[in-house]
Amino acid sequence: MSEQPQTQPHSPPKPLLEVEQLKIHFRSRGRLVRAVDGVSFSVGSGEGIAVIGESGSGKTLSALATLALVGGEPGVVSGAIRYQDDTLQTDLLQGIEACFRQEQGTYKPTWKAEGWRHAYRERATALAGRKIGIIFQNPISSQDPLWSVGRTLSESIRLHNPKATRKEASQEAEHWLERVHIKNPAGVMRSYPHQLSGGMCQRVMIASTLAMRPRIIIADEPTTGLDMTTKAQVLYLLHEAREKYGSSLIFVTHEIGLISGLTERVLVMRRGHVVDHFATSDLLDVKMRGETLETSHEFAEHTQDLLRCSLALEERRARVL
Question: CB atoms < 10 A from the CB of 40, how many?
């Protein structure tokens, strides 16, 4: 039996970003892969949502599509991605209907597709940084190896404030490194990504993202590969960004145990579909009694499986400690 999304748990703030019936398809080894197949979600101003799912569920692709960062063919083939605030309104996928035709269950690009992809990237460029900032899963490979930390941060600051002088940008860059709890910021400013640890690089990327004052932060698996102490620090920084700067947050992760206190709503994805949608507070009373999952909320079957795995992992960690 197929799983159906649950009823929306509450009325969220007016959408700042809306993704509607998004489809992303690829060709792999001669077959069609519907990596994202009709995904819809929204995030309001100052709101935090978590997008949960195992590897290959389509959660990262759905988030990356908001900045036209999806490669491959045919790629994004259908849907709408709308951003709206007081100064900018845009539909990133405007005109997509005329760029692909359906043939035998697949999407084939028309002659208009290439021009449309260029327009899609141009619209996304207008959002990148100041409107939507992204923290990538691998912070070392996501930063320019030829740029020092100071140069990377200064560029982010000058993107937000083009009138800032080089000295002003450098001083503010050090300040941002202090805000993300990096010791010896002056020394780190002279360092390059390969000279820093994964946790340090992640904090630099967070500082670079926050320095642009984005309305929305996309955090794509930001704690993967980090030790528990560094993971806790990264989660705190994301929480602080919401509290101090009013940023909205799209937190993409496969670890359901990380989202309490960080988001208000949760989307659960599986095989390119949203299979559940609920308030984060619904997780507060979840517990295991033997092999039975006990909760007052009616979660989808796949969500229950994820919760069982998460609780079992927490129990094993507690025994080790």
Answer: 16
pLDDT digits (tens, 9 = 90+) for 171-187: 999 998 988 888 899 99
The Cα 182–Cα 201 span in angstroms is: 10
Q: What is the CA radius of gyration of the chain?
A: 20
- As a whole number of angstroms, the distance between CA 278 and CA 297 comes to 9
* Greatest Cα-to-Cα distance within the chain, rounded to the nearest angstrom: 62
pLDDT of residue 35 exceeding 50, the answer is: yes
DSSP secondary structure string for all residues of 187-201? HHHT--GGGS-HHHH
E strand spans, 110-158: 132-135
CB atoms within 10 A of CB 178: 12
Burial code (b: 16+ CB inside 10 Å, e: under 16) for 205-229 equals bbbbbbbbbbbbbbbbbbbeebeee
Centre a 10 Å sphere on the Cβ of residue 32 and count the other Cβ atoms it contains.
14
**Closest to 43 in 3D by CA, of 220, 262, 215:** 215
**Which two tokens mark 138?**
């691998």
